[in-house]
Design goal:
The chain is an alpha+beta fold. It has helices at residues 10-21, 28-39, 44-54, 58-67, 87-91, 94-104, 138-151; strands at 79-84, 109-114, 126-128, 131-133. The protein has two domains: 10-67, no CATH class; 79-151, Glutaredoxin. The longest helix is centred in the C-terminal third of the chain and has 14 residues, at 138-151. Bound molecules: FE2/S2 (inorganic) cluster.
Length: 152
């Protein structure tokens, strides 16, 4: 687990994040979103700590992490692209976008498919390093990947 800085271990930071959300109704999803935001992924050690803190089984926590595409267990590359392949985006050219993304994959770019960002009216939709982009064509995607490389 990543060190959180200031001498605080990753496990201590995970426990602190759980404590921040513990009193909310249904604290698991807010905790997982906070962990994903802070660490960029939710690894097995974090799953174990969250399960312990919320008195859940590891299987329960892992099941939620693996069900939702917003959560990742593995580290991602410097540039992470998520392409929507939902029906509305498919009708607007998502396959060309997905092909362009997979052509760019490798090295510092990882690609994942998603089935709806809720941005259907502005498709095809892609997300590059957490930033959602609508009405995106292959050239727009290439420019977004180049910009993300520069920023990282
Ligand atoms: S189908 Fe692509 S955002 Fe909904």
């Amino acid at each position: 687990m990543r060190q959180a800085g200031s001498g605080v271990t990753g496990e201590e930071r995970v426990r602190a994040i759980v404590a921040e959300h513990r009193t909310r109704p249904g604290p698991l999803l807010p905790v997982l979103h906070a962990l994903q935001h802070e660490f960029g992924r939710i690894d097995a050690a974090a799953v174990r700590t969250v399960a312990d803190e919320l008195n859940l089984s590891r299987a329960d926590v892992h099941g939620v992490v693996s069900f939702y595409s917003d959560f990742r267990s593995d580290p991602v590359e410097a540039v992470h692209v998520r392409v929507c392949r939902g029906e509305a985006c498919q009708a607007l050219g998502a396959e060309q976008l997905y092909d362009a993304a997979t052509d760019a994959a490798g090295g510092d770019v990882s690609v994942e498919q998603v089935f709806c960002f809720g941005n259907c009216a502005l498709g095809p939709t892609v997300e590059v390093n957490g930033r959602l982009r609508g009405r995106t064509g292959p050239q727009d995607l290439a420019a977004a990947i180049a910009a993300a490389r520069t920023a990282s």
